C-alpha cells in the first residue's frame, strides 16, 4: 500500500487511501493503488475467474468499475468532493484470466465546478484494452 508523502501530493495520497479503504466494492475488485498525485491515479488488479463473462473474457462491467474507481480517486485528489457526471468507455481488446491490469487516470481539465479525466486500461504486456472518459462535478465539500 502507498504511504502518503508530504505536501499536496501527500494530501492527494491520503485522500485516495481513505476513499479506497471506505469502498468495499473496489476492495472486492482487488484494486491496489500504484501511484496517486494531484489529478492522477493508477490502480492495478488481477483478473479472477469470477470476473469473466460467458466467453471467458474479462466482463466489461468489471473493466468499467475499475476505471470508475480510478476516476473517482483521481478527481478527488484536489480535496473537494467530486462526483461523476458522465462516463463512457471504449473497449478495444479483452482481458483474460490471470492478467494483471493497470488503470491510469489523468486529469485533462480542472475548472471550479467541473473536471475531466481520460483513463487507459492496459494489461501486463502494455496492450491497450480500453479507454475511459469521465467528467466530474466538484462540490464545495472539503475532504480533509
UniProtKB/TrEMBL annotation:
<feature type="domain" description="Thioesterase">
    <location>
        <begin position="55"/>
        <end position="129"/>
    </location>
</feature>
<dbReference type="InterPro" id="IPR003736">
    <property type="entry name" value="PAAI_dom"/>
</dbReference>
<dbReference type="Pfam" id="PF03061">
    <property type="entry name" value="4HBT"/>
</dbReference>
<dbReference type="GO" id="GO:0016289">
    <property type="term" value="F:acyl-CoA hydrolase activity"/>
</dbReference>
<dbReference type="InterPro" id="IPR006683">
    <property type="entry name" value="Thioestr_dom"/>
</dbReference>
<keyword id="KW-0378">Hydrolase</keyword>
<dbReference type="InterPro" id="IPR052723">
    <property type="entry name" value="Acyl-CoA_thioesterase_PaaI"/>
</dbReference>
<protein>
    <submittedName>
        <fullName>Hotdog fold thioesterase</fullName>
    </submittedName>
</protein>
<dbReference type="InterPro" id="IPR029069">
    <property type="entry name" value="HotDog_dom_sf"/>
</dbReference>
Amino acid at each position: 500500500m502507498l504511504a502518503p508523502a508530504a505536501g499536496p501530493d501527500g494530501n492527494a495520497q491520503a485522500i485516495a487511501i481513505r476513499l479506497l479503504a471506505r469502498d468495499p466494492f473496489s476492495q472486492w475488485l482487488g484494486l491496489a493503488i500504484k501511484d496517486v498525485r494531484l489529478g492522477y491515479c493508477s490502480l492495478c488488479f488481477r483478473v479472477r475467474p469470477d470476473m469473466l463473462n460467458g466467453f471467458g473474457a474479462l466482463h466489461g462491467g468489471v473493466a468499467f468499475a475499475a476505471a470508475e474507481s480510478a476516476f473517482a480517486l483521481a478527481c478527488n485528489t484536489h480535496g473537494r468532493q467530486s462526483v461523476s457526471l458522465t462516463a463512457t468507455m471504449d473497449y478495444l481488446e479483452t482481458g483474460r484470466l490471470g492478467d494483471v491490469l493497470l488503470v491510469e487516470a489523468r486529469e485533462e481539465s480542472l475548472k471550479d465546478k467541473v473536471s475531466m479525466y481520460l483513463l487507459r486500461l492496459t494489461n501486463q504486456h502494455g496492450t491497450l484494452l480500453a479507454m475511459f472518459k469521465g467528467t466530474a462535478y466538484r462540490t464545495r465539500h472539503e475532504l480533509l
